[in-house]
Amino acid sequence: MIKNLFFGLAFLGLSLTASAGVVTIEYSGTVSNHSNGGWGPDIGTQVGGVITIDLSKSSGKVWENSNSIGHYAFSSNGMVTSSGNTGTVTTGTDFVDVYDNSYQGSNQDYLWLNENISYDSFWTSSGYAWKYTGIQLGILFQGLNWITNLSLDNLNINTADPALLNSSFGVFTYGSHRTDLNGNVIFSDTRSTLFKFDSLKITSPLVNVPESGSVALLLMGMLGVILRRRVV
């Protein structure tokens, strides 16, 4: 009976440990600025789309500490995907940075991501190659504690409040690059198109993991019931 109990407790412990889910970001915005001529939508154009983040597909970590983490993944892994992705990206790197009460030395939550939307490794021009397009999002809600952990669990944001969205941004990027004889990456013809958010909806699965003290009390209670039955 005791053996069965501990088997059941082990199963219970496994069931109480939930894995991180997929983060969904639905956004709409208005193009506000061009850098270096920009590319794509004109200023004033309405833009929008859906981006998903699946940290289980991360290839590794650029850095990690108790309050922040930087993930990278080869674009083909699908850690970051968007509604604008051509589906032909086979090279390049995507990034996700998460700050929980730690952005720029302040008690601010911040999420930044970069996705390669398209990547043409066969394109060449004047010694440059690997033409790419991408999207970046930087999400900061001033004074709002909205990131609960570095796994991005339990997210539930749905806002069109201009004051809350004012510190966040999106960027469409375009450029090309080459590698010199020393292995350094040199960029050329880099352009960007900035847009400000009109609305943001960010969700991820609800994950409830009880505190260790609660689990211990539960296990002791179950053991007590079984021992009492054996005595009676």
Structure notes:
The protein is α+β, with helices and mostly antiparallel strands and 232 residues long. It is 17% helix and 46% strand. It has one domain (23-209). It has helices at residues 2-16, 162-165, 212-231; strands spanning 23-35, 46-53, 60-64, 68-74, 80-82, 93-99, 110-125, 128-140, 156-159, 169-179, 185-203. Helix 1 runs antiparallel to helix 3. It is globular, with a radius of gyration of 23 Å. The model is unreliable at 1-19 and 210-232 (pLDDT under 50).
What key phrases describe this protein's structure?
232 residues, alpha+beta, 11-stranded antiparallel sheet, 3 helices, 11 strands, disordered N terminus, disordered C terminus
Topology:
Blueprint: H1 2-16, E1 23-35, E2 46-53, E3 60-64, E4 68-74, E5 80-82, E6 93-99, E7 110-125, E8 128-140, E9 156-159, H2 162-165, E10 169-179, E11 185-203, H3 212-231
Antiparallel strand pairs: 1-2, 1-11, 2-5, 3-4, 4-6, 6-7, 7-8, 8-10, 9-11, 10-11
Helix pairs in contact: 1-3
